[in-house]
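Board notes (copied after class):
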Amino acid sequence: MNKFEQLGLNEQLLKAIHDMGFESPSEVQEKAIPVLLSQETDIVALAQTGTGKTAAFGFPMIQKIDTKSKTTQGLILSPTRELCLQIAHELKQYSKYYPSLNVTAIYGGASIIEQANQVKRGSQIVVATPGRMKDMISRKMVNISKIQYCVLDEADEMLNMGFYEDIKDILSHTPKEKSTWLFSATMPKEVSNIAKKFMNQPHEITVGTKNSASENVQHEYYVVGGRDRYLALKRLADTNPDIFSVIFCRTKRDTQKVAEKLIEDGYNAGALHGDLSQNQRDMVMKSFRNKQIQMLVATDVAARGIDVDDITHVINYQLPDEIETYTHRSGRTGRAGKSGISMVIITKSELRKISAIERIIKQKFDAKKIPSADEICEIQLYHLASKIKNTEVNKEVETYLPAIEDVLEGIDREELIKKMVSVEFGRFAEYYKKAGDINVSNNGRSEDFSSEGKVRYFINVGSRDGYDWMVLKDFLKEQLGLGKDDVFKVDVKESFSFFNTDATHTENVLATFSEFKLDDRFINVEVSKNAHENRNRGDRSGKRSRKGGRDFNKGKDRNFKPKSHRGKGKPKKRF
């Protein structure tokens, strides 16, 4: 018996779960599904975005629906049309072995007549945005007087968007004896008031701590001048060549402006905001899911429909007005058991907001510096060398090799490598040649920005080998015998990484990895040669490892994997 069977799900759902490749339920699913299947009860479930909430309420609702009846029995309210469409799509996947079950999405920006006709033909489950649902009720296009189950998904976000009166009006057209299931990432007073007003002794489920952020997300902030935000954004992107990110701006205007500047500067970027048509939004999201867009610039409202598990970074180009919104933003990464990084670009006057967020999410931020020109060029050079090494040779090239060899005759191997790398690398070197330091002193916080007494290392493993910042940090701590805070600033790239320790640990680090092999592969660690990072290191700053310097992915085994060590309502709280 698999873990989903133990929750009490029937055969049709289990077959669909197997088809989708789900192996084990998430924590919110384990806690919510048995309760919702065995009882007719109201429920309040607090869980972060990306923890499987749709399945937590979707599976029980599908199993309880009477497919022989064409009456609308389930209503799911969600804040945005993107999320509405996403939920409807997932429910259709879950119910693929229920041929008589129909799910209809009701949202603005599409034909209201066509949506009404779909419901009239018989939709047992309706997924809707509050505005469109209220409109259809007032026009008598939909009847929800006999629903048995009502879900308020992303309840905190719906209230944050000013849907309190709409929700109240919609619920007034539903029967009192229904079961109401409220799912939310945070529990501000407005959500608590909804629960008290419209629910009867709800069963409470909390995954993690109330209003806390995911433990899989590392939180960082960078202090720059107000005019340097965009320069900081570019440097963070250049320091992470394989970035797959969502960048948050406060306004639609800023969102469009930042996206256009990124595209103009040669980045694979796109904008997602409310001024786009539904077709434009769909095209942007399709490109993002296919990773044709690496940097998606979005407003908070538009981003509610983003459901992509592989996002590596969330970048707060501007902080939100409400503290709780940060939790939603950072929840875009670190999903489905993976780790992620949430970066905040702030000015000196905004430092107090970091402390306020820390109190809410119950996690500390790392104070970090915008990378220097030397650091960026170093990382780009490693990335390029690794990319060349791992590129599969196109056999058609062999036809042209004799002529190419004639052109390159007389150039020795070392000179040829330099020339090949320079062709691609020259763009970064030229751009950053005269780039200055854009960091602002971090007065008022206890963290120390200086690199004095700290050493930065290069290690020839990365995300391609199955590492993320958490797994690599645990691996290093275990091998070096160091404590929780002794390994820090772990930055994982595709085929290499960097990490820091205090200078007192340098001898231990280099000695441990001098002849280190894992699964018949040499793990090469050495002191990074970046001048900014290596000052005050004494005579070790120029030494190479005993394996003869940087050897990109030496003896790399593509099957190599690391040993994992973890398996408008009332006024809002403002900064």
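Comment from the instructor: The CA atoms of residues 418 and 425 lie 10 Å apart. The longest helix spans residues 413-432.
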